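We modelled the chain as a single entity of 295 amino acids. Its sequence is:
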Amino acid sequence: TAVDCRLQTARRMLGQWGLETPPISVEVVLALAASLKAGRYRSAKLYISAVKLHSERMGFPTSDAVERHIKDATRSCERGQGGSRQAGALPFDRLAELPSCPAPWVPGGPLGPAQLILAGSWWLTREIELSNTRACHVSFSGSPSVPGQLVAAWCLPASKADPQAVGVTRVHGCTCEHKSLQACPAHALFLQRGRLARLFSRRFDSKGNPDPDLPLFPDQAGAPVCKDKVVATIRCAARLLGLPALAADGEHLWTGHSLRVTGAQGLTRAGLELWALQLLGRWGSSAILGYVTST
């Protein structure tokens, strides 16, 4: 879950200070806040809250002194952040240039990174959705060997407020017949599922159905990857495409929402109407306008 990923990230940060949690202490709060502020995390409060929640669940009550330091640390991390920044968009029409090797691009990252970038862009996913999704969440129909026939269906959460509820299915067909679209989303998922069947054959039954716990984009051991590794993979994709890592003010251009922006802008340019894009991306508000206004 998102809370688990934040807790893992917080523990890695605290490990660099030689600290562990639980319990949560004043020293832990100050060290974690310092790391989050240095890393310019915009959601520092959520990371500190994840550590606090885990500590309390393990039977360690939070003292009044720690509560006061959490409030002070949160204000310090949020001071001067300004308004939210629009995530950068990768060039949609250049995604086919990414190397299609199965090995992760970053240590501990997902297998099939090029397929992750391509599928994540076409299906307008967030990094947490790519981290959580399972191989059993995708299905196929039609012939993969005949251009234009393969159809890939992906069950996705209905909204970001429910990242593990497989609530809606979104479909893309094979685009191999369209010369203007150089990379096919249906075949990207088909290639990834086939790769998993070869690498983790013991986790597939006799009918070719994957274990319900097998991630669609696992690490090399077949385990789920943390969302930070997905973000690192997105940033690696930007680097492979020759794009800058930072904006003029020093902020990271590429975030966990970059593939969502990439797909929104790319599909808009390809002619997808706004209402269809909103349905595909599971937007329940006008937030989509902020993604496509710069197209």
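As a brief sanity check on the tokenised model: DSSP finds eleven helices and three strands in the chain. The mean pLDDT is 88.
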